[in-house]
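Friendly challenge for the regulars: who can give me the structure tokens for this chain first? No prize, just bragging rights.
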Amino acid sequence: MSSYPEQRPEPRLYGHWRPERGWGVGSLGAAQTAVVFVAVLAPVLAASVAPKAAVGLALVSVLVVVAVTVRVGGSTTAEALTRRFRFTTARAKGWTELSGGLLTEHPRRHDLPGPLAPLVALDTDDGRGGRQALVLDRHTGTLSAVLRCAPAGLDLADRASADEWVACWGAWLADLGHRPVIRHIAVTVDSAPGGLADTDYLRGRLDPDAPAAARELMHELIELSPSTSAQTDTRVTVTLDPSRAAPRPPDLLASVAEVTRWLPGLEAGLASSGVAVLGRESTASLTSRVRSAFDPVSRDEIARQGEAHQLRQWAQAAPIAATETWDSYRHDSGLSVSWALREAPRQAVNARVLVPLLAPGPYPRRVSLLYLPYPADQAAARVESEITAGQMRRAWSQRTRRDETQRDRDDRNRALQAAREEAEGAGVGRLTVYVTTTVTDPAELPGAVADVEQRAGAAKLRLRRLWGAQACGFAASLGVGLNPTELAGRGRGR
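First reply, four minutes later:
Bragging rights claimed.
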């Protein structure tokens, strides 16, 4: 009787992310392609009308084409120069610094610095006999609820359970497109090395009647716990726009009631994705968490106080001083550096691909995944436009007798697959990632930066350091309902 070795099933892989490209030629977008065409045609047309001006116009066109096509660190030259100009202007006007002390007159004291200035936390009824915090954006009128979560780990889960969780998570995201009031969601994982609050917790549970040898051993283990343990906090922030509801709420009170009505259904959907919703974050917890992010030295002291004695006024979340530089963000006792997603994994990945980036390390780190769902009635038009854009790029290559690159062919195939999946009920949206690491000693900053970049590489992500936008990246990674792409049309906060 012969026996054959048992064939193990291959791990399930996920992938086929693609950025929106539009109908641009090559790697250029639609707007960049239009600028290049105008820059090329302008000197030709000027030569027939004003030959003397054609030479100067040709030089300007060359500079415009170089600024649009040449890339520096993942951005075009024009984008890099614009970013530098905006940051220099903001620094000259004093927008990159905050200095507020006990003797400083500050009438708008509830404002946080920079992009966080429009946000204010509201203490509201959760409809179940408890209290909840809703973050109001006074610019857009959106309300954000923070759900405290405890995700199930993959270490002890079998493959079937992991596949089911991923499928349910995809269905939950697809369902967001059928809920017009939802603006975006953010999944934030906050990790930090174990602090003194953990040692206090363990010391308080030592049995005074235990043998001396056992107590001595436990004291030695407790002293080692800060360097061997870690704190991890997971939250899902749901940002809703009451103005999209039907009928539209007439005032803020009705908007809060409308948002609270939508939350139970969203919480129930997360339960099937391997995520246990522990509850909605309170105003005291939210204020203390934001304050700990600005002042990491106070993290242990705030944790020792417990929720009953945590900070309760939103004004207490603001830092005493904050200064944004080109490559970092200084705030009270912390120094932070932030990144944003530049490119998603090109290859198919398994379910544990983000573990290196989300796992605790030697430095405090926040990772926030921001997802903006497209409404279900617009998703089909989005994917069809991408297919049309791919066909236009292919026709342009044939017309100019250029060989189509393998990346263009793969991109067109991914667009076709996205259209097929959308026709079968999948959701369509935009996903980005913001990462922030914080240190209390400036000498540790190079090590913290290298740690994040190494972990991002292991997670198959390509990150871009937010040069000149460190305060924005810091705020986006907090998971308080802020979307940096919506800040483009606003003036910067103080």
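DSSP finds 14 helices and 15 strands in the chain. The longest helix spans residues 376-399. Your move, everyone else.
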